[in-house]
Structure formats: C-alpha cells, structure tokens
Amino acid sequence: MLCRRRTRGVDAAELKRAAARLLPDYMVPQAITVLDALPMGPNSKLDRAALPAPRMEWQAVEPSNEREREILDVWQDILEIGDIGVTENFFEIGGQSLAAVRIVSRLKTRHPEWPLTIADMFNHPTVRELAAAVEERRDEGSVDVVYLRRSGDRPVLYCFPGLLVSTREYLRLVDHLGPQQPATGFICYSLTEMKTLSTTVQDITARYAEAVRREAKGRPCAFLGWSWGGLLAYEAARQLGSDVDLKMIGMVDVCDMDEEFTIGVRPPLCGGCARAHAAGREAMARKHTDARGMADALRCDGRRGLRAVPLSCR
User: N or C: where does the chain have the smaller number of CB atoms within 10 Å of the terminal CB?
Assistant: First the structure.
C-alpha cells in the first residue's frame, strides 16, 4: 500500500514498472488499483470485503489454433487468471519459476510428445511463442539455456544461477549494461528434469560448460556467478580451459558454502535417503504427477542427503 502525494496522481502502469525494476518477479503485483481512500469498517479497521476487485488489463487475443488453445487453458488454470490472451508475457501477468514448472509438467503430462522444457517458458514467454516453439526442432544441449539478450557486439556474458537466484534476476543488470551487451543465462539445477539427489558440482556445471563451448565458438566471453553461481562459474572456467576466450570471471555475494556443495565432493546419502531417492526416481519414471504421492515417495527422516544439492530456487 502506498500513499500518494496530494500534488500529483498515481500512474498504475508506471508504478508497476518501477516495482519490476526493484523487486524479484514473484513479488511484483499482478495488478495495481488506485483508490481515493481505503474503505473502513465501524471499528476503524480496513473493510477488506469492500475493496474493489483488481482490474486486469490484458490484450485478450484469441487462440488461432488448437495447440494455442490448450496451452492457454493450462496457463489460465495454474495462474488463476481467466481473461488473458495468447500474446501476454507470462512473467508480466504474475508468472514465476514455480508456476512455469507446473505449466510444463501439466502440458507434458497431456502431450508427452511435445519437446517442452522449463527454458522454453523463459525463452518463449507468450502462449503464441510457446506454441510455435513446440513445433521446432531443438538442440538437446540447449535445454538449460535462457537467452537474456541475443543482440550486441560485446563479449557474451554468461550468467550462472545460484541456490536462491534464478536467471531472471539478472535481467535488471543486463538492462543496465545496455543494448550492445549480449547475455545468456542457465536454468537453475533444481528446475531441470535431470536433477538427482546425489550429484556433484562438476556434474551440474558440465551441461553449462558444454553449452558455452558450443555457443562461444571462439568469441570472447565473460562469466558471472551470483551466490552459489560463483562456484559454478569458476568450475565452468576450469572445465573449459583454453577452449574459450574467457576475459573475466565475476562473482557476486559468494558465501562460504557447506563442504557438501564444494567441488569434488559427492554428497553421501544415508540408508533412508538412498531408498527415498530410488523411490522418487521410480515414481518420476512412471510420470507420477500426484503431489501427495511424490511427497510420500520422497519423505525421509535423514536430512543430510536431502540438503546435499540445491533443490530450492526462486
């Protein structure tokens, strides 16, 4: 809630843009309503029931084919927004990474033949673009790559995700660097379909390093890692060696991590965790999508194995 100055009005669109610049995407409000005064009850407390429903101002473009219609139906159900069209940006209408995971999971359950990944939600953030991406043939090695900006003649900046830092949180930095700065990010490990409970920093980084090796193609580049991403950036540079023309490794707010997150260590699993790991993988192999069932399959009293890999990401 904000109190406006008496001398000027409030532009809801401008306020939302300002919030998007300052806040993580999951904290940006879907709608902003300007009121002359808050409705108060007899006891001088806010009367929430008297607040007007927020107005969603979308360009509700209708689907042009059945694929767009099916994708739009899933978006509306998971985002709980009815009046949206196929040209709205997923992240501008309240979408965030966890909702993207649910959408991709729902669509792949209905259409296992669709080559959808979480990265597609970032690279094709409208229903129309996502529907077109389903029809494209894509390189299997690009499933973790998110293109923050494709254009520009400066060395490409590769942004590595942290434990609690998603790729989209680099967008404000990329905007600040200007239109000539190309930048590429990577999907947080916890959001990928390849994640396991027992893995190493080298295993996680190898997919990122291979994407850099394939795309840099001798061009100069720079690495940036935020939080745990700083460790990934360092390990990627080590794996790549002289294969790329690396000009800089930048690390932002890199903390002292537990030894289980360090390079060269494979986190041990206690007996209960190992059984839970096997049960979870078997359930996923059967495309088990019931949330309660998955929670039962992965429940384990031992905590050591469950915290051994980055399974949380905004």
Answer: N
- Given a contact cutoff of 8 angstroms between Cβ atoms, the answer to whether 185 and 148 are in contact is yes
Cβ contacts of 187 within 8 Å, gap of 6 or more: 117, 118, 119, 122, 143, 144, 145, 146, 161, 167
| Separation of alpha carbons 139 and 147, rounded Å | 14
Cβ atoms of 221 and 247 closer than 8 Å? yes
Helix, strand or coil, per DSSP, at residue 119? helix
The residue length of the chain stands at 314
Helices 229-240, 201-216: axis angle to 10 degrees equals 60
At 156, give phi and psi (nearest 5°). -65, 135
Helix (H) or strand (E) holding 226: strand 220-226
Q: Which of 141, 145, 209, 137 is nearest to 182 (CA)?
A: 145
Pick the closest to residue 100 from 113, 119, 85 (CA basis): 119
Q: CB under 8 Å, gap of 24 or more: what pairs does 69-76 form?
A: 70/107, 70/110, 70/111, 71/107, 71/127, 71/130, 71/131, 72/127, 74/103, 74/106, 74/107, 74/110, 75/103, 75/127
Looking at the DSSP assignment, which residues form a beta bridge with residue 147? 184
What are 244-292's pLDDT values in tens digits? 999 999 998 886 655 555 555 554 544 554 555 455 555 544 443 444 4
The helix (H) or strand (E) run that includes residue 245 is: strand 245-252
Q: Is residue 296 helix, strand or coil? A: helix
Q: Which 8-state DSSP code applies to residue 23?
A: S
**At 287, which amino acid appears?**
K
